[in-house]
Amino acid sequence: MADSPFIARGFHAKRAPAKPDRLPPGQYETRDFPVLSAGPTPRTALSKWSFAIEDAAGHSMRWSWDEFQTLPRETPTVDIHCVTKWSKFDTKWEGVSVDTLLEKARAAGVVEGDFVTAFSDGGYTTNLPLADVKGGKAWIAFGYDGAPLPPEHGGPARLLVPHLYFWKSAKWVRGLRMMQRDEPGFWEQLGYHDRGDPWREQRYQGDP
Amino acid sequence: MQMEEMRLDGNAAAGILREIFVHDMTAAVATCRGCGATGMVGGLLEYGQEMGAILRCPKCEAVLLRVVHAPDGMRLDPSGLALLMIPANALVT
Amino acid sequence: MTIPHTAPARLEWRVARVTAVREEARHARTLVLDVPEWPGHRAGQHVDVRLVAEDGYQAQRSYSIASPPESTPVELTIERLEDGEVSPYLCDVLRPGDGLELRGPIGGYFVWETSLGGPLLLVAGGSGVVPLMAMLRHRHAAAAPVRETVPVRLLYSSRTVDELIYRDELTRLEGAGDVDVHFTLTRGVPAGWTDFQRRIDRAMLAEVGWPAASGARAYVCGPTPLVEAVANQLVELGYDPSRVRTERFGPTG
């Protein structure tokens, strides 16, 4: 890399930040919803879909799609931040709070760990501290912008953890696995951060 | 296999692979550890967009190769490859 | 000029100078670049272009080289994407005298040179015609006896007639012999249009492409859905998959 980069005359990011206090460092606002995938879009039929919370000892709590739809749902409006530098404000979701799921999982004997690994159809995984999916900070979302979540954006359901970089919001999520140790997931194995707080710019391993 | 509009192919990873390998790697022949299919790297399916390069087998969609360029260096996970063969006539740019 | 046979140790970013620009079609522009210490290239290769803003914001894209190895200024043809971030800059803001940071040439799979022989089937969707044009220009620069051993058929799909890039030059190449050019438009045709007017399909490829038994090499480039459909159709028509090379440009622009 050059020591002083060549500045392209007259080039700038597509949009200037309209709400600078809502933009984490190094981010730019977008009005689009870019699609970023590590693999082909899975097409799991709702009749085959399930979501599970499990621990290493084999305790688990599982919901079918129909059972999931009977759970209390919320409609959070949140800002989302991608590690590739775009942020999107006021995105509207519908889903079940992870707190609701954890409560039922605990009642079924699932033992919590300090960390969770979210796992998805197609083999994608991501790791994060359990604390980051508790306390009203995370959902399993199946609705976006008033409609069912489209497959390219993670439908039927994705994890939604908007206070962390959006690669943590695993698309096509099928469960959370309790972990005693932090196990790097798909992108984390390749150098992305174990936690991913955009306000501290925790993009890569080693970022403080 | 469903049509995936967003995906590219090994040609899109040529630049990042050229940061690691001295040779162009798109003309190299990859053997998939999952299904045994062989084909040129240029013909592999590429995902990941700006996060990194994820190269998948066009037959079984298994991940063959993953590359991320982070500030502290580059990480290459080749564990999905059973073999990579770089033909002698690919040893030019 | 000879194709170089030594690989540089590193792929370096260089600052090229824009010496001229040329409007090609309604949404396309060619940049003529003076690239310092350019090592030469092969038809079908691309460059990576990097734009850095004053605030440090960066964007990087790949663009196929439009010029053949035989010509010295390196030319890139850019399709202007309405909601793009880089292509509007390259088409609307960049001007002769400006610097443009790039690295290349890159690629060794989606390349063709006369020594690889033919017959050649080139299938393009939209801006996918750019690397294929480098191949055609490279072939045209060869001596007549060489050209005669490599007959070419080009099938070029575009949305509308005014989005066809290089239309005049393609017509001239066709007139010069051994190049068969067919266009197909998918979003409406002008009055008097006599060529195809639908998405490329197996029947069209069977009609204007080389039969598989000819041993033709195929190069398919353009939007991902088109490339994948055409590659599958060619294999269905009997093409050996190893003789079909593809370059996907992503979603339809």
How would you characterize the overall build of this protein?
The complex is a heterotrimer of chains A (208), B (93) and C (253). In chain A, 7% of the residues lie in helices and 28% in strands. Chain A is mainly beta. Chain A has a domain at 49-79 and 91-182: Alpha-Beta Complex (Sulfite Oxidase, Chain A, domain 2), CATH 3.90.420.10. In chain A, the strands form two sheets. In chain A, strands 1, 4, 5, 8, 9 and 10 form a six-stranded mixed sheet that branches. Chain A has a five-stranded mixed sheet with strand order 3-2-11-6-7. In chain A, a hairpin with a 4-residue loop joins β4 and β5. The two termini of chain A are 23 Å apart. The model of chain A has no long low-confidence stretch (mean pLDDT 95). Chain B is mainly beta. Chain B is 10% helix and 37% strand. In chain B, the strands form two sheets. Chain B has a five-stranded antiparallel sheet with strand order 1-4-5-6-7, covered by helices on one side. Chain B has a three-stranded antiparallel sheet with strand order 3-2-8, with no helix packed on it. The model of chain B has no long low-confidence stretch (mean pLDDT 92). Chain C has 253 residues and is an alpha/beta fold. Helix content of chain C is 21%, strand content 31%. Chain C is globular. The chains are: A mainly beta (208), B mainly beta (93), C alpha/beta (253). At the B-C interface, β1 and α1 of B face β6, α6 and β11 of C.
Which regions of chain C are unreliable across 5 or more consecutive residues at pLDDT < 50?
none
Calculate the mean pLDDT score of chain C and round it: 94
| Rg of chain C, alpha carbons | 18 Å
Largest sheet of chain C: 6 strands, antiparallel
The overall average pLDDT of chain B, rounded, is: 92
The level 1 CATH classification of the largest domain in chain C is Alpha Beta
Q: What is the assigned CATH homologous superfamily of the largest domain in chain C?
A: Nucleotide-binding domain of ferredoxin-NADP reductase (FNR) module
Percent of residues in helices of chain C comes to 10-25%
Identify the strand order in the major beta sheet of chain B: 1-4-5-6-7
- Give me the number of helical elements of chain C: 6
Number of domains of chain B: 1
Regarding quaternary structure, what we see is heterotrimer
Largest sheet of chain B: 5 strands, antiparallel
> How much strand of chain B?
35-45%
The general outline of chain C is globular
Head-to-tail CA distance between termini of chain B: 33 Å
DSSP strand content of chain C: 25-35%
Q: Work out the radius of gyration of chain B.
A: 13 Å
Could you say what the CATH architecture of the largest domain in chain C is?
3-Layer(aba) Sandwich
